[in-house]
């Protein structure tokens, strides 16, 4: 049986530790600054029970609330308001001059403001150069290194790992890795034991926050689907493809128009939130809008195959961490892609934003040989940033907007909806599996592999 590497001290704060009342040390250091990769707006986190009126009283802001808006709310289309409040999360997106934002920071200690952060730009995560201005994220080239050298390097690393962890050399050999044939089922469904599960996701609401959905795709005919766009000027219809692919893996049909079957929770209720544009980009405010919408609608699972790059030593967002904690308290688990910035074996990047938050389940990617995908980020940063679990993420077939209908792509984005779909099966299995309990059962039931916890967390996700 495969052994699990021994864990060192956790890089995350305990999941049940209450940091609600602890202001971020970065509460005022970014006031009036728009770092690269940000929008110029700010996220303001309020202490639980603090009224949004504090933003008006302290900084003279005009505040609108999503509770008063029937359709998808965006800071871009609120008329004269310069702050949008998400009451379910206790967070506001503020679009105001630096002096007004500075006033909030100065009064933070007495006003119930816990943190202020620049609003980040986020992207759909898939294997490839998705983010403008960033290096390509495809696997590193072997140019300049003889093949024998690379094989020798690999063997040396494997030998050292076996010696340090007690793993049995070769224990994950051909007999332990099935030869996946995708005539009836994708390799991802086979590897995660989905076909053997008697659960279907019935009665479970799954929100996928991404580039939207091609609701006219024939494989989704007759399904219960609720849609909402949080991108100004764009409908939910997926003009990119990423969202339709992720929704297909998490909740696609049991009998698609063309085999192999690729969907997991085929009777779950789908909530498709468009928080990324047809170009595959968005901002923190749109993500928070989608989280607020999903929580308010009683979704047990939120799947987010999106994010932004995080540098070495960089901490997680206090705003998103509190949003995730508040979602967990309402019975909603957020599952997010760890990121694709690595170029293994030469370079491993830390888990990206917002998956690096302790209360968000971060998903790494494996290939069909049960090895870490070259692009998959690792748990490197000392504060937050741990990979919690892994899913199939290389050469994953799923639905795609018409007229193509089906496509195979790679990324931690593709691993994430595997975990989300299987989470729906566990949620159907036992109504007690909600929030933190759902996160726990996913990690406890994962298949242990002789790989570093840094890269795959508890192991490969498994269906009940």
Automatic annotation (TrEMBL):
Residue segments, region Disordered = 1-24
Any idea which GO molecular function terms this record carries? serine-type endopeptidase activity
Q: Does the keyword ATP-binding apply?
A: no
- Gene Ontology BP terms: proteolysis
List, from the UniProt record, the residues annotated as the active site of this protein. Answer: 210, 242, 413
Domain Peptidase S8/S53 residues, every copy: 201-459
Keywords noted in UniProt: Hydrolase, Plasmid, Protease, Serine protease
What the entry lists under InterPro entries is as follows: Peptidase_S8/S53_dom, Peptidase_S8/S53_dom_sf, Peptidase_S8_Asp-AS, Peptidase_S8_Ser-AS, Peptidase_S8_subtilisin-like, Peptidase_S8_subtilisin-rel
Q: Please give the family membership noted in the entry.
A: Belongs to the peptidase S8 family.
Which PANTHER family does the annotation name?
CEREVISIN-RELATED (PTHR43806:SF11), PEPTIDASE S8 (PTHR43806)
Instruction: Tell me what this protein is called.
Output: Peptidase S8 and S53 subtilisin kexin sedolisin
């Amino acid at each position: 049986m495969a052994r699990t590497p021994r864990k060192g001290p956790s890089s995350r704060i305990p999941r049940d530790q209450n940091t609600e009342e602890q202001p971020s040390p970065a509460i005022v250091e970014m006031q009036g600054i728009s770092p690269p990769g940000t929008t110029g707006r700010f996220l303001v986190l309020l202490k639980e029970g603090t009224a949004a009126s504090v933003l008006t009283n302290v900084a003279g802001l005009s505040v609108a609330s999503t509770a008063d808006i029937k359709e998808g709310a965006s800071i871009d289309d609120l008329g004269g308001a310069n702050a949008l409040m998400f009451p379910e999360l206790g967070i506001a997106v503020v679009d105001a001059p630096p002096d007004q934002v500075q006033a909030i920071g100065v009064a933070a200690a007495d006003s119930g403001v816990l943190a202020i952060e620049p609003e980040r730009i986020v992207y759909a995560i898939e294997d490839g150069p998705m983010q403008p201005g960033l290096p390509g994220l495809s696997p590193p080239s072997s140019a300049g290194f003889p093949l024998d050298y690379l094989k020798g390097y690999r063997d040396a690393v494997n030998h050292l790992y076996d010696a340090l962890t007690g793993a049995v050399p070769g224990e994950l050999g051909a007999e332990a890795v099935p030869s996946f044939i995708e005539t009836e089922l994708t390799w991802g469904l086979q590897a995660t034991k989905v076909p053997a599960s008697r659960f279907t996701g019935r009665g479970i609401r799954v929100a996928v926050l991404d580039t939207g959905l091609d609701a006219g795709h024939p494989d989704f005919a007759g399904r219960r689907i609720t849609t909402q766009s949080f991108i100004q000027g764009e409908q939910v219809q997926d003009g990119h493809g990423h969202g339709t692919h992720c929704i297909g893996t998490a909740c696609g049909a049991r009998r698609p128009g063309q085999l192999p079957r690729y969907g997991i929770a085929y009777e779950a209720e789908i909530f498709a939130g468009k928080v990324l544009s047809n170009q595959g980009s968005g901002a923190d405010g749109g993500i928070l809008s989608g989280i607020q919408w999903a929580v308010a609608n009683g979704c047990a699972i939120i799947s987010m195959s999106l994010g932004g790059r995080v540098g070495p030593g960089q901490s997680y967002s206090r705003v998103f961490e509190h949003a995730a904690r508040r979602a967990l308290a309402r019975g909603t688990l957020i599952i997010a892609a760890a990121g694709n910035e690595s170029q293994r074996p030469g370079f491993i990047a830390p888990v990206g934003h917002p998956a690096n938050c302790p209360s968000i389940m971060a998903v790494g990617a494996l290939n069909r040989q049960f090895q870490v995908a070259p692009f998959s980020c690792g748990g490197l940063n000392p504060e937050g940033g741990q990979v919690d679990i892994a899913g199939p993420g290389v050469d994953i077939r799923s639905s795609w907007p018409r007229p193509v209908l089906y496509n195979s792509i790679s990324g931690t984005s593709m691993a994430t909806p595997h975990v989300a779909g299987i989470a729906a099966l566990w949620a159907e299995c036992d109504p007690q599996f909600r929030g933190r309990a759902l996160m726990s059962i996913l990690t406890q039931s994962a298949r242990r592999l002789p790989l570093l916890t840094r890269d795959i967390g508890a192991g490969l996700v498994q269906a009940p």
